[in-house]
Amino acid sequence: xxxxxKFLEKINIKGVVREQEPMxxxxxxxxxxxxxxxxxxxxxxxxxxxxxxxxxCSLPWIVLGEGSNVLVADAGIEGVxxxxxxxxxxxxxxxxxxxxxxxxxxxxxxxxxxAGLRGLExxxxxxxxxxxAVWMNARCYGSEISEALAQVVYLNELLEQxxxxxxxxxxxxxxxxxxxxxxxxxxxxxxxxxxxxxSPFQGKPWIILKASFHLTSEDPRILEEKxxxxxxxxxxxxxxxxxxxxxxxxxxxxxxxPAGVILDRxxxxxxxxxxxxxxxxxxxxxxxxxxARASDIRALVDRMQEAxxxxxxxxxxxxxxxxxxxxx
Length: 328
Ligand SMILES: Cc1cc2nc3c(=O)[nH]c(=O)nc-3n(C[C@H](O)[C@H](O)[C@H](O)COP(=O)(O)OP(=O)(O)OC[C@H]3O[C@@H](n4cnc5c(N)ncnc54)[C@H](O)[C@@H]3O)c2cc1C
Description:
Bound molecules: flavin-adenine dinucleotide
CATH architecture of the largest domain: 2-Layer Sandwich
Order of helices and strands: HEEHEEEEEHEHEEEEHEEHHEEEHE
């Protein structure tokens, strides 16, 4: 393709640039066909240069963190996939921790705990990058990442660096988990612009470059204990038994119970299409049992949605993001 050739001729960065890179190597589902171009910039300026060049060559582009919340089509992705994973510095000034977008969530949790800073330990053991987690407003154990956010530096559509200063509304305490869960499932959040699995970055061609978190001082030993508890809970729930992308569907309060409970009652645990299998332990997780294709996983998602639609008259909303050349 002419546009790809032009991009390859002009790109001049230290990071990795590959043609026809299998996305199965870069997603937690371990499925997905090739991206026309795959770039791993090593710095924010290289990231900006990659996008500038993609635009100049009229190539579509997308940003990927750890690929732990996406399902990439077997036919791959058109244009440039820009991975943030090499942009991963962490800095700590007093109780303010700043992590570049590609930093793994778990590395940030470890660094904060080691520094005796509380506020992010609930994310212990969760796959993903800081950029992806902020984009998704990742949440677990009754807390969400936006609760600790101080500011986010991002690139807008004109490739200008902007800063979002995050406002926290003094509405209610997240320590009341039932109340908090109810509010976030309604899309109401304590944090302006954020909601249940929603952030101001969704639906915009913006790139999160770094995020800063306001944390509080705590004894590192207490934090270490907490992170172990969360990780062990994930292990017990079978999160790491096989490649997956975590929860397939969002919880929707109008259904009155979590998606996993609904799907379990419908008998989906262990249900299989090809090598795509609903986890025998949690009906809202799909595993790749080895040789699943993206189309098998998608067919299983569709089957689950159809079943819910039939009984409830409305479908569950997928949490995982479908990327690439899907037929429909
Ligand atoms: C075993 C397992 C357990 C999980 N448990 C949880 C859980 O408890 N809670 C939860 O919320 N999620 C969970 N997830 C899902 C996933 O880990 C999180 O949503 C994570 O935050 C996604 O980050 P990522 O870097 O992998 O994003 P990706 O999958 O790479 O990308 C997701 C989306 O974010 C966009 N994006 C990524 N980086 C940027 C950036 N820098 N700028 C702009 N857009 C960007 C991408 O374009 C894409 O649209 C789990 C996944 C697995 C595999």
